[in-house]
Amino acid sequence: MTSVAVGAHPRLRALLRDRGAWYLTGPQELASVIGRLERLERDASPDLARPGSYLLLLDLTSQTLFNLRLCERSRGTQEISIFSPLGARLLAARAGDVVTLEGFGSGWRLLLVQVRPG
Q1: How far apart are CA 54 and CA 74, in angstroms?
Q2: N or C, which end of the chain has less CB nearby within 10 Å?
Q3: Domain residues of the chain, as ranges?
Q4: Residue 41: per-residue pLDDT
């Protein structure tokens, strides 16, 4: 099981630190990642978020925009792994989708504003 804070965006790490919350990736989310990767293999549409895509996200609570790169394994502060809870939800999403992470008090909601191929 992996904590969402590993390789997460600094704002997300700060949110976790401030709220003292941890959200873990379990078998159900890993199965979801595999299913989404299979969907992406069948659908070559450039508007779907896939490993390597650059994503522009809007935090619907703070109205803050930030950029993330979706990747298999995050190596920097602007990258998020598809195996993290947030990355798993962003995988195969398209602009206009709202991604929600439960477990952060009232939850954390992000609007995917733009997907750019990597």
Answers
A1: 13
A2: N
A3: 10-116
A4: 93
